[in-house]
Structure formats: structure tokens, C-alpha cells
Amino acid sequence: MTDQTALEDMARKTFSGPIDFLKSAPTLEFLPDADLPEVAFAGRSNVGKSTLLNALTNRKGLARASNTPGRTQELNFFEVGNPPQFRLVDMPGYGFAKAPPQVAKRWRFLINDFLRGRPTLKRTLLLVDARRGLKDIDRELMAMLDEAAVSYRIVLTKSDKLKDKPLADVTATLAEQAKTHAAAHPEILTTSAESGLGIDELRKAVIQAIG
């Protein structure tokens, strides 16, 4: 069995096994013990984090998805495996302009403090809407992750909304930009929760990150 085949087999078995909601943490003092590897999903509000998590785990209602931007206001932790082998973290969306200023400020501090200070965080997956590309607030987060030496990888969401050529172009552009960031993974993942595009690759990427 080749390494790639073994990885595919492990990813398939892992994400078809037990995956359970653990807890929500509105502030850092509510975080679970840092005793398992973690992979966090970060991105602008309404980028499709919860929907992608549901597709990743092949469970329709694991993460609560909503058409209302800014619904996720806490860090939501999910344990994978029995006994648990690692955790997935659904983070509050950032950059939602209609959120009250104090709420937006609290979300920002929660996100930044978690990403900078979590010792068991193996990788952050930075979700970017394929139709929108990187925005200034994404670049701010990337700069913070670079400075904190927190490994991250860009994942394009809603990629099915673009034709092949525009999708290839935006992927190539982001790959070039990722090369200029010290903590960024050089390869971009293209995904669609709706069509299933790239979901198997995303599963493998999660397994590799915690390994």
C-alpha cells in the first residue's frame, strides 16, 4: 500500500467514524483542555465554514449552518474518533459589518487570542469564497498567523460557482500570494460543499495536519 493510498484509507475511515459536538466556548476560559491535536476553520462571515464542516464530516447537522452572517459567535469544538483522536474547531466568522461594534470586537479578540495561544492547534484552514478572493481582513489574519508562526492553509469555498478558467486563475493567484507568507501552506485547496468538489482532498489535508 502506497503512502497516498494509506492516507486516503485513513481519511475515509476517520470521517465515516464517530464525530461528536463537544462544547461551545464564548470566551477563552471555557476552552476544553489542550490535550488533543486541533484543526481550526477560520474565515469571513458567510464564507461557508459550517456548511463545509458538515460536508467534510458527511453529517448534515453537525455544525449549524445559516444564511444569516455572523450566527456563529463562539468557538465550537467537535471531537473525531472514539476514543477522540483530534478536534475540529468552527470559529466565529470575522468581518461582519452589521454586528454591533462591541460584539465584533469581542469576536476578533477571541479569534486572535485562540489562534495565537492554543498549543495544540496544528493548522488553521483559512476559508476564502472563490468568487470574492482575499480581502483586507483576510490579509490581516494571515499577517497575524505569520507573526505567531501558526501554520495555515487557504481553502477556497463555493468553487462550483466559478467556471474552470476563472477558478484556475484565482487558485494560481492565491498560490503566488501564499508563497509570500511565512506560515502559509503553498498549495491551495478548492472545495464546494454543494458539489463535493475537493472534499476528499480536504479530509486528507486534515489528517496530514494532525499527523
UniProtKB/TrEMBL annotation:
<dbReference type="GO" id="GO:0000917">
    <property type="term" value="P:division septum assembly"/>
</dbReference>
<keyword id="KW-0132">Cell division</keyword>
<dbReference type="GO" id="GO:0005829">
    <property type="term" value="C:cytosol"/>
</dbReference>
<protein>
    <recommendedName>
        <fullName>Probable GTP-binding protein EngB</fullName>
    </recommendedName>
</protein>
<dbReference type="InterPro" id="IPR019987">
    <property type="entry name" value="GTP-bd_ribosome_bio_YsxC"/>
</dbReference>
<dbReference type="GO" id="GO:0046872">
    <property type="term" value="F:metal ion binding"/>
</dbReference>
<dbReference type="InterPro" id="IPR006073">
    <property type="entry name" value="GTP-bd"/>
</dbReference>
<dbReference type="InterPro" id="IPR027417">
    <property type="entry name" value="P-loop_NTPase"/>
</dbReference>
<comment type="function">
    <text>Necessary for normal cell division and for the maintenance of normal septation.</text>
</comment>
<keyword id="KW-0131">Cell cycle</keyword>
<keyword id="KW-0479">Metal-binding</keyword>
<keyword id="KW-0460">Magnesium</keyword>
<feature type="domain" description="EngB-type G">
    <location>
        <begin position="35"/>
        <end position="211"/>
    </location>
</feature>
<dbReference type="Pfam" id="PF01926">
    <property type="entry name" value="MMR_HSR1"/>
</dbReference>
<keyword id="KW-0547">Nucleotide-binding</keyword>
<comment type="similarity">
    <text>Belongs to the TRAFAC class TrmE-Era-EngA-EngB-Septin-like GTPase superfamily. EngB GTPase family.</text>
</comment>
<keyword id="KW-0717">Septation</keyword>
<dbReference type="GO" id="GO:0005525">
    <property type="term" value="F:GTP binding"/>
</dbReference>
<dbReference type="InterPro" id="IPR005225">
    <property type="entry name" value="Small_GTP-bd"/>
</dbReference>
<dbReference type="InterPro" id="IPR030393">
    <property type="entry name" value="G_ENGB_dom"/>
</dbReference>
<keyword id="KW-0342">GTP-binding</keyword>
